[in-house]
């Protein structure tokens, strides 16, 4: 056992050594990534490395800078915080300038971490610029007429980004220009008067001219920037392709919360109160899926899906993980982080990440590290630092079964609107149930709310006694 612990320690130290080499420029990202691969052994040793406290509200966004040594977060408190996550310390905090909850914050590449873009519930798109002395100033560069959830940065560009919002609008920004370009407004295929409320946008890393959007219906729409007619008022917003699982076509009961691209242009899609699905780029339904011929649908391959979690109460993200996208990541209403093997969909890990709901799960750009956040006011960071292999917790089957029962019950009842009071009661009941399962899991003794062993740090009584009083409506609850 001691030998295992020493080996784990050396592995973790090697990870951090490679990060430090990367910071001073003595190792390329490609070389580092090949040395620290997404091997299954690392996944099975993933445990909580740190807990970052500084926000006074739900943390709705976490993302690493391009080098991976800094973490940027945004919250209901409208502040932006930059963290030295390895040292578990705050570097600086600045007011975003938003009037409502910050939903997404990203560091622009090739700007020496001096430019941060944000979107929020107030619909504004803002840019923060670091001045001499480390002070940030912010300005509004665009606006949506409803909540704006997500941005997409053009790979390798310090200037270009896209935003989408619940007004159905997709905008293109060049930070060298004074005003954005309104690319398109997304409408329902069945009712051209009904706008699709957009939750997510993602750019294909293999071809940045392609981007996909998803929102309040079941379809992922793929666009080619070069084919959008910006000068025509009659632009009918027809994508070049669409994607949807066959059993969800024209069902009208689900919507898309998140989209992610793999390095090989696969599209990963998370559905509200449904599963996560993986689409190959040849699995499209054409520009208008509602006119797709039945014989074409019959030829479509069975989709790879990922299940066990629940994505109902909030707008949850989804991500690939590993240098070759070997794994799939998602948060869950049950407060856990789920890690599946991409090929075959086997659930590999289930880690307790939040007292209530895990919304955001962000992989490190180069190494097998993660950052997660949710309704808690803290951010958790994760590394392959456990002294032992961590299997699925003993209570995993109960949590998975409970998630499935709740999904089926909701599907049979239809839409129900809950007050914030009732919502918090449900979340607290769910949290106590999860903690009860965790208390019967021997390996959970050192973890504050029943998840994994913490190898580098211990969690104190203050962590155990902290209670959240956040209103989940302010945490992107749908």
Automatic annotation (TrEMBL):
One term under GO cellular component: cytoplasm
Region Disordered, residue ranges: 459-478
Protein's UniProt keywords contain Ubl conjugation: no
SMART domains documented for this protein: WD40 (SM00320)
Pfam families: WD40
Keywords: Repeat, WD repeat
Residue spans of the WD repeats: 52-84
Gene3D superfamilies per record: YVTN repeat-like/Quinoprotein amine dehydrogenase
Basic and acidic residues biased stretches: 461-478
InterPro entries, per the entry: DCAF8, WD40/YVTN_repeat-like_dom_sf, WD40_repeat_dom_sf, WD40_rpt
Name under which the protein is recorded: DDB1- and CUL4-associated factor 8
Organism: Hordeum vulgare subsp. vulgare (Domesticated barley)
Gene designation: LOC123448941
């Amino acid at each position: 056992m001691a030998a295992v612990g020493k080996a784990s320690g050396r592995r973790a130290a090697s990870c951090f050594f490679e990060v430090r080499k990367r910071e001073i420029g003595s190792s390329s990202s490609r070389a580092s990534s090949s040395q620290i691969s997404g091997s299954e052994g690392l996944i099975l040793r993933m445990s909580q490395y740190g807990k970052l406290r500084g926000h006074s509200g739900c943390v709705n966004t976490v993302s690493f800078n391009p080098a991976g040594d800094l973490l940027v977060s945004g919250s209901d408190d409208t502040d932006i915080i930059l963290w030295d996550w390895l040292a578990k310390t705050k570097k600086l905090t600045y007011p975003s300038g938003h009037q409502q909850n910050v939903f997404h914050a990203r560091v622009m590449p090739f700007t020496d971490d001096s430019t941060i873009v944000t979107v929020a519930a107030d619909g504004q798109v803002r840019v923060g610029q670091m001045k001499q002395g480390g002070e940030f100033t912010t300005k509004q560069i665009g606006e949506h007429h409803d909540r704006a959830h997500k941005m997409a940065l053009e790979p390798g560009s310090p200037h270009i980004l896209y935003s989408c919002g619940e007004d159905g609008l997709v905008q293109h920004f060049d930070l060298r220009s004074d005003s954005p370009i309104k690319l398109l407004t997304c409408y329902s295929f069945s009712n051209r008067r009904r706008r699709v409320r957009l939750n997510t946008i993602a750019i294909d890393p293999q071809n940045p001219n392609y981007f996909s959007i998803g929102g309040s219906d079941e379809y992922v729409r793929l666009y080619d920037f070069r084919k959008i007619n910006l000068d025509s008022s009659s632009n009918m917003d027809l994508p070049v392709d669409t994607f949807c699982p066959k059993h969800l076509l024209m069902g009208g009961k689900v919507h898309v919360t998140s989209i992610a691209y793999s390095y090989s242009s696969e599209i990963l899609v998370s559905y509200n109160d449904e599963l996560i699905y993986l689409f190959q780029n040849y699995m499209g339904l054409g520009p208008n899926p509602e006119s797709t011929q039945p014989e074409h649908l019959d030829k479509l391959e069975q989709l790879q899906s990922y299940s066990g979690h629940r994505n109902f109460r909030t707008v949850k993200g989804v991500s690939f993980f590993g240098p070759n996208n070997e794994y799939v990541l998602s948060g869950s209403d049950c407060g856990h982080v789920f890690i599946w093997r991409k090929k075959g969909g086997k659930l590999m890990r289930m880690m307790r990440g939040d007292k209530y709901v895990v919304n955001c799960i962000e992989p490190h750009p180069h190494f097998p590290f993660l950052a997660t956040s949710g309704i808690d006011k803290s951010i958790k960071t994760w590394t392959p630092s456990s002294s032992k292999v961590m299997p699925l917790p003993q209570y995993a089957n109960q949590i998975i079964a409970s998630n499935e029962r709740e999904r089926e019950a909701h599907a049979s009842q239809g839409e129900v609107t809950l007050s914030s009071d009732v919502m918090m009661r449900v979340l607290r009941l769910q949290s106590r149930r999860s903690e009860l399962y965790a208390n019967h899991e021997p390996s959970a003794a050192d973890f504050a709310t029943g998840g994994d062993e913490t190898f580098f740090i211990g969690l104190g009584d203050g962590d155990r006694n902290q209670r959240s009083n956040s209103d989940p409506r302010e945490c992107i609850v749908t």
